[in-house]
Amino acid sequence: MKKSTAIPLSYLSATQPFQRPSIMGNQDYEIRKHGTSVGSPEIHLSSRLQVTGEAEYADDTPMPSNGLHAALVLSRKPHAKILSIDDSEAKSSPGFAGIFLAKDVPGDNHIGPITHDEELFATQYVTCVGQVIGVVVADTHENAKLAAAKVVIDYEELPAILSIQEAVDAKSFHPNSEKCLKKGDVDLCFQSGQCDKIIDGEVHVGGQEHFYLEPQSSLVWTMDSGSEVHMISSTQAPQKHQKYVAEVLGLPMSKVVCKTKRIGGGFGGKETRSAFIAAAASVPSYLLNRSVKLTLDRDVDMMITGQRHTFLGKYKVGFTKEGRLLALDLEIYNNAGNSLDLSLSVLERAMFHSDNVYEIPNIRIRGRVCFTNFPSHTAFRGFGGPQGMLIAENWIQKIAVELNKNPEEIREINFQGEGSILHYSQQLQYCTLGQLWNELKLSSDLLRAREDAKQFNLQNRWKKRGVAMVPTKFGISFTTKFMNQAGALVHVYTDGTVLVTHGGVEMGQGLHTKVAQVAASAFNIPLSSVFISETSTDKVPNTSPTAASASSDLYGAAVLDACEQIKARMEPVALKHNFSSFAELAGACYMQRIDLSAHGFYITPDIGFDWTTCKGNPFNYYTYGAAFAEVEIDTLTGDFHTRTANIILDLGYSINPAIDVGQIEGAFIQGLGWVAMEELKWGDAAHKWIPPGCLYTSGPGSYKIPSMNDVPFKFSVSLLKGHPNVKAIHSSKAVGEPPFFLASAVFFAIKDAIIAARAEVGHHEWFPLSNPATPERIRMACLDEFSSRFIDSDFRPKLSV
Ligand code: MTE
Ligand code: HPA
Ligand code: MOS
Fold first, then answer.
1. For the chain, does the N or the C end have fewer beta carbons within 10 angstroms?
2. Which is one Pfam family of this protein (predicted)?
């Protein structure tokens, strides 16, 4: 018998097939009921309609028989002069009904949510692929697309800026977008010799497509020969649609109405980048006096409506040999694309969150908004916060490697706490970070998990496990002060049922359910007696977009205000009689000519930040959380899966813990997509095979979002108990965005596993890992005898940033 070469037992890990266990979920919360409904884990009020497919979205609205479908004529060049537009072929296309360009816009062709730096239809120049040049209408959606594709545009191509670095090199920044925040004296600290170590580095933060299930859609129609314009839009900001359409058509806002019943997800992608869709559809609708529907196909939606900003962070950080932070000098840049949109606010929120939860005595953060030749990037769950925090956790991780400690040790010794004064002068109050961190550490048995992973890694050469625990703090309020206002309209009917309308949009987050619970408890009636039908600019005017996670705080309080007014009017009647039901009381009030309808209003008190003095309180309060994750990677394929994720969040006394847990699970999985799966590939210097400025990953075939198979095998969520929030309605806290960043625990657990893989071949030095940690990046980072022939230990696979 031939003697075989012995294969180490640990090498069998290369061949062991992956087996997926069934998923175990765990949800732990206390119920703090207040009245009939607040605090109760009610199911989402439209969930039944949604699972049966009966719930209606913008595109489901029936069209009148003469209604038209629209398609956009889009730029194919990232930067060019428009030489000519030939629409002759389009005009003879089947079902064609009209083409409209800049010259046809009846009102103002300039649009934009803050600065009017965009054109509804491009006039002379295009500054990104996918910029709107015109709109074509036809009898069907397919015919409209066909005709739009036949419009021939002649361009004179101009040089394009296709990455943050190119923008920095060319000093291509949006005007007045330079921001700085400071505390202490960074330069003095670096020079003083107090720092045992000073390190520097660069973090490249990848983007993310919103991938709401319902693409952008608007249906616009006119009344009385165009003297009124109405629309149904899939948007987080009906008021912006009303305003854009009024301006583009040259009509007063009082003659334009936008309604939104619900949207199939927004995630920030419909805060501003939905409005130009409505405005584009309104032009043919108004000029032809016909209904026009514009619903984007998925690929077009992905190509033209913008994504989460990519960021570039350059840091220098000084610390003691114990790992105590002394000074941080940070420059951050975001890739705004070809218009300002919300990018300055996104940058500001990133700057506010660049400390994550760490005490840094000396800090200087400088930020810039880069103009690039891409579609305008925009709000996305976390609004720059996650990008700022991911940069922070990157240097924390690097400090840990430098000092040969676990990152959790570095994190803990630098935690902020009660009374901490942040780099923008806000002071922490009611800080629960320490409590929830300790609880999670105990329940996840971090030290044991680390030891188990170590043992596993000793026995498996080609599979590695890693663990990580990451904290977060998310500031609640729009950082633009005036936006923190909310209106509501409450009607009590004579049968005792209540119709609530408020300025917020239901996008799946359960806002209407929570707000209805507030009204039910206010009137002491069952939740089934309260209904919220839709959001409409003619019922509640001048509303902010539904965003910044604060909607249940804002609209809950506005609705409560309206309910209290009605209750006060009812009280004299209620006191006179012992009514057997709310319906009887309402009927009696009606007979006594009491107004059973009220407008409610709320503004967040005591907030405001002044960028000239860099002082103030941008936030009403903070939502704190932490997550533990354990992952396993296949070092030969780069595949990974999350074995465990444990999340804890402080949500005060939750208005609806069932919905809040759903928000946490959803945000975490969406965050998992951002940190480990979803990669946008653009035609840039790194991807020469894609036409310049074009998005290659324009659909689910090339862009991988998380699915059921990516849910952690053990997935548990708990809400911190016994900490009411004095700053918001019914002692609750905002939930929508804060848990998103916690998925970075998976990212750092992946990095921890890669560290174990590299240690086997004697590599202990720090190495870069950018998000998303896709199989390609994980594989290449696991230096071994195969990959080290081609790459250095600090190899960075290309990434569109
Ligand atoms: N949840 C669902 N199901 N769908 C969404 O589009 N958007 C998120 C979050 N949760 C979103 C969601 C974002 S980006 C924000 S800012 C908040 O919900 C907005 O709603 P809220 O203010 O009611 O929390
Ligand atoms: N968050 C979300 N959307 C916003 C904000 C914010 O802080 N500011 C302006 N729009
Ligand atoms: Mo959320 S990004 O504030 O819509």
1. N
2. MoCoBD_2
Residues with CB under 6 A from ligand 2: 271, 342, 345, 349, 379, 383, 478-480, 483, 547-548
Question: pLDDT per residue over 698-747, tens digit each?
Answer: 999 999 999 999 999 999 999 999 999 999 999 999 999 999 999 999 99
Structure tokens at 75: 């730029």
What atom in ligand 3 is closest to the CA of residue 548? 3
Q: Whose CA is nearest to atom 7 of ligand 2?
A: 478
**Is 669's C-beta closer than 6 angstroms to any atom of ligand 1?**
no
Atom of ligand 3 nearest to the CA of 737: 1
Strand order in the sheet with 292-295: 96-101, 132-138, 68-74, 292-295, 217-223, 228-233, 256-260, 535-536
Q: Which of 800, 670, 680, 797 is nearest to 744 (CA)?
A: 670
For the chain, the average pLDDT equals 97
pLDDT score for 213? 97
The residue type of 379 is A
CA distance 575 to 564: 16
The verdict on pTM exceeding 0.90 is yes
Q: Say how far apart CA 563 and CA 503 lie, in whole Å.
A: 15
* Ligand 1: centre distance to CA 736 (Å): 5
Residue 679: closest CA among 308, 400, 348: 308
Helix (DSSP H) and strand (DSSP E) numbers for the chain = 19, 29
Q: Which two tokens stand for residue 479?
A: 């950082």
The catalytic residue positions are 737
Do residues 28 and 647 make contact, with C-beta atoms less than 8 angstroms apart?
no
d(CA 723, CA 435): 10
